[in-house]
Amino acid sequence: MRISIQHLTKIFPSRTKGGEAVHAVEDMNIEIPSGQLVGLLGPSGCGKSTTLFMLSGLESPTSGKILFDDQDVTTLAAEKRGIGLVFQNYALYPHMTVEQNIRFPLDNMRIKKEEGNARALDAARLVQIEDLMSRKPNELSGGQQQRVAIARALVKMPNVLLLDEPLSNLDARLRLQTREEIKRIQRTTGITTVFVTHDQEEAMSICDTMVVMKLGVVQQIGAPQDIYDDPNNLFVANFLGTPPINIFKGYTEGGKVYIGGEAVAEAPASCGYENREVYVGIRPEGFIYDAEGAFTLRVDHIEVMGRDKSVVSVHECSTKPTVRSIIDSDVMLPPDAETLRFNIKPYKLFLFDAETEERLR
Amino acid sequence: MMEEKETVATLAETPKERNKPGLGARFKREKAPAGGDGLTPEGPTLSRGERFRRGLRSQSGWLFVTPALILMAVFTFYPIIAAFVGSFQQQYNGMTGTFNGWGFDNFIRVLKGDTGTGGANFVQCLVNTLLLTFVSVPLSTLLALLISVALNSIKRVQKLYQTVFFLPYLTNALAMGAVFATFFKIIGTPNNTDTVGIVNIVLGWFGIKPIDWVGLQSPHWQLGKLNIPWAKYIVTIIYEVWSGLPFKILILFSAMQSINKQYYDAAKVDGASRWTVLWHITAPMIMPQISYLLVTGIMGGMKQYSAIVGLFGETMGMNYDMGTMVGYLYNYIGLGQTGYAYAGSLILFVIIMIITWINNLITKKRTTY
Ligand SMILES: Nc1ncnc2c1ncn2[C@@H]1O[C@H](COP(=O)(O)OP(=O)(O)O)[C@@H](O)[C@H]1O
Ligand SMILES: [Mg+2]
Fold it and tell me: Which run of H or of E encompasses B301?
């Protein structure tokens, strides 16, 4: 099912008199093609869950429209939208067995017992919990509970699957495993899926399309790699990538980008060659060691990680305490060097306006 | 009134359900404390004085319970033993303190209703008590559940209503009973339709003749030796349901408020009707509280007495036809027939034991997730 979100806005009135209303989502416009896995990504409190709840029909928008295919579902009740929703805390009914939990939506649809049993078993097989059917939720691990929640959402064969931070309660290993599982299930079923997370790595790893949000406003929409390679603004550049991007205060002059007196790169034509304050973002993998390089960093220490090594250094123009550059492990660095010089890969360097923090291309 | 003042105290103490984390809390993943618990003192490193003080502290608990133990021994254990012994003493004479041998005579006469004193009939009292209890307690709990659900769905006024519904609970039970009785009363002769209570006035609108609900002419059915004073039953049940509501609503309503809202959201997405939500989500989630109310309600019901006296006077209706088991005991103590009272109390004790046991069986099954 194709989802179209048009000018969607949600304002929570303030709880106290005279307090400020919360603009949880503002003028959101997204087109989601059928069968895609879309990730809503942003820091906590940026309106991801609110967006999801509006899609599900549990919250009604202040303004704007939601279309499923060509049907306007903005005011349609949650149970009539044909969606499956997996809550952040799973919300499994603690007094029901796994089977009863999975069957619950079917029972509400008054589906016959045999068919219901068969479908519940199918859903359980899909998420590989068919052996746990008679357990109660509190007898399951976090990962298993999460699978039950997915099975419950899938059993009614929804047109749209909505997942709210489905991995946040799992430990690191299980998170890795489960996110691949989600991807697999989404592939097998072909259900249009919206997936909410605050973890950029998680979103990047499984999404077809990623929507980056900040304070209720969409910052950028696109394929994960495209957003990573071509961020719209400082926030997006900063939010994506581990280790995170290095950011320096700099300026442009005569077609060059300067960081603390060193010309590190050519400036793009659009930003003009006059003195202009900019933020310079350089991805950790954007550094090439060169004894004659244009950019000098004072080395703090070097972390060896096997496949590559991480030069942790300091620079007076950096907005963060340390600068991290990742170098191939077979690049030989002079031992005990106090400073190292680098050249910068131009496509790993982004310029942002110092005022608006918008990208200068 | 089913002795619910008492149940408040019990609630504050240690009903098992209270100790469980709130239902909402089940959502939160509980982290096991890392490493040792940090509580176990490291024995060998303690100084002698410290060891002595700790020993004293661990034993000093006894110091605090001793007064209570003594009081219980005097006022609880002794009477229980005395009643047990007394129930087997036949034809005990309160004036001389003599009795005519040991045996089951008291029990047989009590159960047969053959006491020869014109006092209350045990079987009648037993039937009354069981019937009133097992109708009014579930009814009032069910009603409280429905009202709580209704209240819970009114978002804005929740806090206000909580107070409003708690108020009747704080008002005096006797005042409540007096007002209540006037609703059903007929003053003067039953045929004098001018001075009837509000219930009869309302019935009059539907062409029903005034019924002497609580008086001497109250209608009843006769089942052999057993009397079924249905009009008085209705009055009593309505009274007990009504007077039991505030407390029950308070308990259920606050339990409902602690249910995580996400369960309801999930149910909504899953297409559950209001009815399904009530019976398949809300009720099971507050099952500990429901069963607590049922258990304490039934216990209180088995001991009901004051409400009956309030409504029907000291003779508990006509010839004790509204007598209860506790009423029976008071009746025979009043008549100086302590042997029958003891025997009756022992039977009551056994019945309460059986009910408690059944309660435990059921609640254990229903409330373990
Ligand atoms: N029911 C509500 N009433 C008032 N404010 C809310 C409500 N739900 C969410 N908010 C506010 O809206 C903002 C977005 O919340 P949410 O969508 O839950 O964020 P996220 O899921 O991205 O962490 C937050 O500032 C939050 O405090
Ligand atoms: Mg959220």
Answer: helix B287-302
